[in-house]
Specification:
ProC C-terminal domain-like fold; 8 strands; 11 helices; Rossmann fold; 8-stranded mixed sheet; elongated; alpha/beta
């Protein structure tokens, strides 16, 4: 399959990095300016559309309407449209391109570059083999799950934005251990091992134990872990973190509503 990216920012680059060793794919892109990447660049959007079997809408939400205005004048027969654009529904895209075009909406994260993304998938033509091929492609880049569009805003906040939130939490650890007076690179290595070890602990035991049981296994009565967890619970830190996820979900919902309103007016 020939993959054509409209825009070549972080996400498109992650997809390319995750798939570039697979010889069943060819890649090209269209963007405002040529990037320092080793794949074909098209100066005109219609040239990219003619080339590609799959067209990735790798643009910012505020730029999507303008791109769709251009795309609706192109021959999209036999093309598959893939949109990772947050807050923009399939119905929004259909208003420009029509309902006959196979449109796949996804919500991935940048771990696609390492074949470790968690990606939501929904399509307007689930019976179509072209949509199935995209789902299988996403499986090469991590774990793909079919999800109703109503769940995309929450999925975006947890799995799309989640890596940034987890890193922000890790940064809190780093800020606290600055008193060790070690180089920042060493602190990063220590935190990476902490994260890797915790993930491995979860991975090896999640089939037999719940998260609550795994936490309990680490906690000694009257010990340091218990003291920290009691503070965590008494100050309702989990509720505050839920607020972070809710803020991200609310923003995704706002993008969707604003996009629909702008199109309607």
């Amino acid at each position: 399959m020939k993959q054509g990216f409209i825009g070549f920012g972080n996400l498109a680059n992650a997809v390319y990095r995750g798939l570039k060793e697979d010889r069943s794919f060819d890649f090209a892109y269209f963007a405002r300016s040529k990037k320092d990447v080793d794949l074909h660049f098209f100066e005109h959007l219609d040239s990219l559309v003619s080339y590609a079997d799959v067209i990735w809408l790798a643009v910012k939400p505020q730029d999507l309407g303008g791109i769709l205005e251009q795309l609706k004048n192109c021959d999209l027969s036999d093309k598959t449209i893939v949109s990772p654009v947050a807050g923009k529904s399939i119905a929004y895209i259909e208003r420009y391109l029509g309902k006959d075009i196979t449109i796949v909406r996804i919500m991935p994260n940048l771990a696609m570059a390492y074949k470790a993304s968690v990606t939501a998938f929904h399509t307007n033509h689930p019976e179509n083999d072209k949509a199935d091929r995209i789902f299988n492609l996403l499986g090469k880049l991590g774990k793909a799950v079919k999800l109703e569009e109503g769940g995309f805003d929450l999925f975006t906040s947890v799995f799309g934005s989640g890596p940034a939130f987890i890193l922000a939490f890790i940064k809190t650890f780093k800020d606290k251990i600055q008193e060790f007076d070690l180089p920042g690179s060493v602190l990063d290595e220590l935190l990476l091992e902490l994260t890797r070890g915790t993930t491995l602990y979860f991975m090896q035991n999640q089939k037999d134990y719940s998260i609550e049981e795994l936490i309990k296994n680490i906690t000694s009565k009257g010990g340091t872990t218990q003291a920290g967890l009691e503070y965590f619970q008494s100050h309702k830190i989990s509720k505050h973190f839920e607020g972070v996820l809710d803020a991200a979900r609310n923003r995704s919902e706002e993008l969707s509503k604003n996009g629909d309103c702008n199109k309607a007016t």
